[in-house]
Specification:
This protein has 378 residues and is an alpha+beta fold. Helices cover 25% and strands 29% of the residues. The strands form four sheets. The protein has a seven-stranded mixed sheet. The chain has a six-stranded mixed sheet with strand order 1-2-3-5-6-11, with helices on both faces. A five-stranded antiparallel sheet has the order 4-10-9-8-7, covered by helices on one side.
Amino acid sequence: MKSFAEIDKENNGNYLKLLSATAKLSRLFSESQVPYNYYRAAENIFCKSFNADNLSRGDSAFDANFNSVGIGLKTFICEKQFSTEKVAEFNKLSIQLKHLKGKELALKLAEYRNERIELANRLYNIDNSLYHIVARKSNELILFETDYDIIDINEIHSVKESASGLQFHDGKNFYSYNFSKSTLFRKFEIPQNAFKLPVDIINDPYTLLLELFEDSKEISKATDLLIKGINYVILPLYGINNKQKFVFEKSGLNQWNAGGRKRDFGEVYIPIPIIIHQLYPDFFPSRDTEFNLRIPTGEFFKAKVCQDNSKALMTNPNKALSDWLLRKVLNLKEGELATIEKMEQLGFDSVIIYKDKDGNFKIDKAKSDSYEEFISIN
């Protein structure tokens, strides 16, 4: 596959132009000769320029999906020929990890990291993956691609532990783990053939912005901003008892396990807390009214809210939701219970539901604790 810098140049695209333009405005944020490039801006510029699906909202292992290629997008200061950068956080798993030492810890970190990559592969139908890097040096941006492989567990060696962290190599890449931050880092090296984009930082970006936004100029306003309860809500996949999260064993994701009659393994629903209906009564259609629900692969389900107090989000057939959420996302076998431990291992415990202006809905996973954040600020 050609580099994205080559693809952009061959198609007279806007990627390099937009990267350069935002870097030229660095004086808005810094006095340094190193261009400033906010990572969210870099992600949005990439996705807009290459018509890639932006996955960054879902806190996925990948930031973008480019024709079934998972893209990890990174931008960082790199005055040397290499930089060690964060690739995963394991805050929710720190209790399990803190009891492990040496190679045993390295193996568990690799297992957790690989599971999250494989989850993203399943969730977005990813066939291949790579990192696209925008490294920032004095007066230039350096662009290159490198592998986004899972950690080769069988080749882990050179494990070294210190008071602050752990280091290891898997035969291809160097990794380090910080104990206090529960964060895994990887070393990225700039190759000799990297693409270099010179950047002349503008001395006075403020005057430029004032001229740009003169009252006489017509500039279209954003109409698709995320507005809580209007075009998105977040639903938890768990309950809380004594301030501890848990997954109901006989309802919700595990409704198939309920008693009373013979159940099908495909029986499942996503719980809708009553507070969601109280705060945002117009977000979902009325009870038992079907609507389209798009999953991240692009497939559409027929869905509805149902049961007493409209407490359940289900699909028709119900098995469609279980095949996606239990089998594909959580990677559970039939008869295997969904648990909060499994979700924390994969880095999520909620789903986000988007709604467009035509009343079509879209669902994706949401990172751990996102429901608490969503419901706490109203």
